[in-house]
Structures are given as structure tokens and as C-alpha cells.
């Protein structure tokens, strides 16, 4: 069962004519974000390089929610292109343009054209933690083991 939350979206001038992000299937978790680069002026990511790609959108999330910007699996599998700070977090109080930091881990230059689906955005509830200083922590079977301590 999925719950819908209302998110206000503002299309900035350089996104005119582009569709709003959309779910590609009825059960999809992420909305596809599109590149709002100028028509006829694609952005090229050379191998090993990264860039902030504009979406031309700003959103107003309700309090208690965030939006996560995540890679599209097809771009990663086929071209080695992914979101550098994955997942990128958009806080509920941020009102600026959503930009996606893409990196090209592939062997060939990757061209990003206007309207290309470059990432996905997942809206999710947030729980803020109340940190409580203590002198020691409770014991567990795992203890301080990490970085492969429970397997390969």
C-alpha cells in the first residue's frame, strides 16, 4: 500500500516545455528527473568527470519529508554514469533548483541532451534523532566489529 503526499513543484524558465517528473510504472518508487540543458547545447561528461546537471525544478516538500536523488540503473549499467553523492538529499526547507551531480565512470564520453532522464527522485518520511550523551553503550553480540566483520 502506498501513501500519496502533496509536493508543490515550480518549473523554472529553463525547464519550459519539459514534462514534470513522472513515475514510469504504477508501483515505481522514484520519479524520473529530466535534464534541463539548453536545446541544441547538450552537456558532455568525459570519462572520470562530473558535473551538476540542472533539472529546472524547485519543490516544496511538506515538513517531515525529504526527497532523495538516486541513480538510474540503466545509465549506470549501460554507460557507467551515476549520481556522485548518491543518494543526494533535498531537505523540506530547501527551495532552490534541484540539480543532479552526475559522474561518468564509463570509458566513453556521455552526452546529456535536453529532456533526458538523468536520475530518479524518491520522496520519503524523515525521523530526526534526539542524541543523548552516555558514558558507555549497551553490549551486543557484534560489538564494534565492522567493515566485513560479519562476512565478505
Feature tags:
152 residues, 33% strand, 1 helix, 4-stranded antiparallel sheet, Deoxyuridine 5'-Triphosphate Nucleotidohydrolase, Chain A, mainly beta, 5% helix, globular, 3-stranded antiparallel sheet
Q: Short description, anyone?
A:
This protein has one helix spanning 73-79, and strands at residues 8-11, 31-34, 43-45, 50-54, 57-60, 65-70, 81-83, 88-90, 99-104, 110-112, 117-125. With 152 residues, the protein is mainly beta. The two termini are 35 Å apart.
Number of helical segments? 1
Measured as a percent range, the helix fraction is under 10%
Q: Got a strand count?
A: 11
Determine the CATH superfamily.
Deoxyuridine triphosphatase (dUTPase)
What is the beta-strand fraction?
Answer: 25-35%
- Strand/helix succession: EEEEEEHEEEEE
Largest sheet: 4 strands, antiparallel
Remind me, CATH topology? Deoxyuridine 5'-Triphosphate Nucleotidohydrolase, Chain A
- By secondary-structure content and strand pairing, the structural class works out as mainly beta
| Unreliable residue runs | none
CA distance, first residue to last residue: 35 Å
The CATH class: Mainly Beta
Shape field: globular
- How do the strands of the widest beta sheet line up side by side? 2-11-6-8
> What is the total domain count?
1
Mean pLDDT: 95
Amino acid at each position: 500500500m502506498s501513501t500519496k503526499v502533496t509536493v508543490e513543484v515550480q518549473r523554472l524558465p529553463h525547464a519550459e516545455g519539459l514534462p514534470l517528473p513522472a513515475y514510469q510504472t504504477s508501483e515505481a518508487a522514484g520519479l524520473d528527473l529530466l535534464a534541463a540543458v539548453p536545446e541544441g547545447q547538450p552537456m558532455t561528461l568525459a570519462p572520470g568527470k562530473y558535473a551538476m546537471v540542472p533539472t529546472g525544478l524547485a519543490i516544496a516538500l511538506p515538513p517531515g519529508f525529504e526527497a532523495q536523488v538516486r541513480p538510474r540503473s540503466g545509465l549506470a549499467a549501460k554507460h557507467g554514469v551515476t549520481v556522485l553523492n548518491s543518494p543526494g538529499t533535498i531537505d523540506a526547507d530547501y527551495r532552490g533548483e534541484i540539480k543532479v551531480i552526475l559522474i561518468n565512470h564509463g570509458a566513453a564520453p556521455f552526452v546529456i541532451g535536453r529532456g533526458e532522464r538523468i536520475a530518479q527522485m524518491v520522496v520519503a518520511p524523515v525521523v530526526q534523532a534526539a542524541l543523548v550523551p552516555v558514558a558507555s553503550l549497551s553490549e551486543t553480540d557484534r560489538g564494534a566489529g565492522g567493515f566485513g566483520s560479519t562476512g565478505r
